């Protein structure tokens, strides 16, 4: 395809403002999906996306329109997946910034707009959902125009649901988004913006070609690893994979299959070139995202450890933000310490591992990364509470902080400030976006906002507040490690690093929870919460004499055997902590967040 006829754009917006629905209408109006095959949020292909009604992965689709080729990328909206969005932006020249005409600008509207501006994209401001009775297109067109610095009349108005205005929007994309520029006869350079492991076809690599041409049956070179492969299949997504034997030229977006099974051969952010005529310079890749939250992941059945490792390798291919390394826990056995971008990311990863790879997992309480400076000047990076030094030699502890932006109607300013203050926030500033809408900026410890902060914010503002945050360095804080002891023995999986003001609460809650969850044993089991040697909470599980066989009156042998077997079964699902038998379910329940 002549690059002059190509337009590459993405749809960006706050979560639920209608990106995926607008993408649906575009699929339909351009004729790539017929009415019969249409289903809502067509591009949300993973079960978990469909069930939760959210987009997790960006999806690129080729659409024919008015003699042109449009490559449209639908993106996720949640703050945890900003990294996914910023990658998609690099494959585009334009972005549709979509705003719900009944809600107005929200936190991720701003965050995504800034990302698109940094990527030098042409921005098309669009109000969506104008079919809603509660829509206020005039008011929010003004708000949006004020933000972007255009005239309110330049803001397009559409309904992704009814399709009103979508044709005009597609025409507008053709007229205003610049075509890709690249050198057609230069050595090929294509950016890998995503890849996925397919059981039947091996690694499928998604690319955007910047210069030159990639063909079928061509030897290609992955520039960062110097590995060469042959392209067995090359094609475009529209909206299902379609083989394109003529290959991909300047500005085109598509996929490659090389038959490679080793997932490490195809790295997101790498540049693909031709082995025969190699490019000398790589394209600017992606900055590697820094994991913000860590948690231990363990197979419930210890024998599944190798499967867990393999599943993580494969998932990482499709989720470049995922990092992990092996760790062992006295209580839980062999597992991994896994880094995530946030709690939603953590939930999704765990769910994908369980669903796509058939594993049953336990995850330990998530924590952020701390930097501990010892009195002798030594420094430690702590991603796991068990690495937190005990004893009195700690000089300083630093925790990560964020710059958080909250958007809400101005009547909630008081409530928002109260929540932020309660979480050690420091007010940075406040701006009115319009008469009754305010943007409040705070420095907040990351450890304070990743847990129920957003839920609290939502409930105190009747659902009207939205939140975005980005890392903003670290600050010194008074943090301590709380250990939970069973019969005097610390259970590593239950340790947590918390602010000293919250240590007591954590200890009391955990001890109470465990008293409920751990069955009585043959002997008394004290549960204690402690900071170092200082006990801050205590509970007791009373002893019981349980002799199941006593019930059998010695008569029925087969019944006796059955009972013994049942008891053995039960034992298998027990973990021993010292002499104490802790059922697997107790770990799962105690570590669950609610
Ligand atoms: P995304 O998170 O930005 O991808 O948003 P979705 O496309 O998943 O849409 C979120 C919700 O808004 C869904 O319930 C849609 O049915 C609804 N929605 C999307 N576009 C429109 C629209 O134009 N009009 C109305 N009334 N509802 C819409
Ligand atoms: Mg979506």
UniProtKB/TrEMBL annotation:
Broad enzyme group: hydrolase
SUPFAM superfamilies cross-referenced by the UniProt entry: EF-G C-terminal domain-like, P-loop containing nucleoside triphosphate hydrolases, Translation proteins
Keywords of the record: Cell membrane, GTP-binding, Hydrolase, Membrane, Nucleotide-binding, Protein biosynthesis
Residue stretches making up the Tr-type G domain: 4-181
Family stated for the protein in its record: Belongs to the TRAFAC class translation factor GTPase superfamily. Classic translation factor GTPase family. LepA subfamily.
HAMAP family on file: LepA
NCBIfam families in the record: lepA, small_GTP
Protein name (record): Elongation factor 4
Native species: Nonomuraea fuscirosea
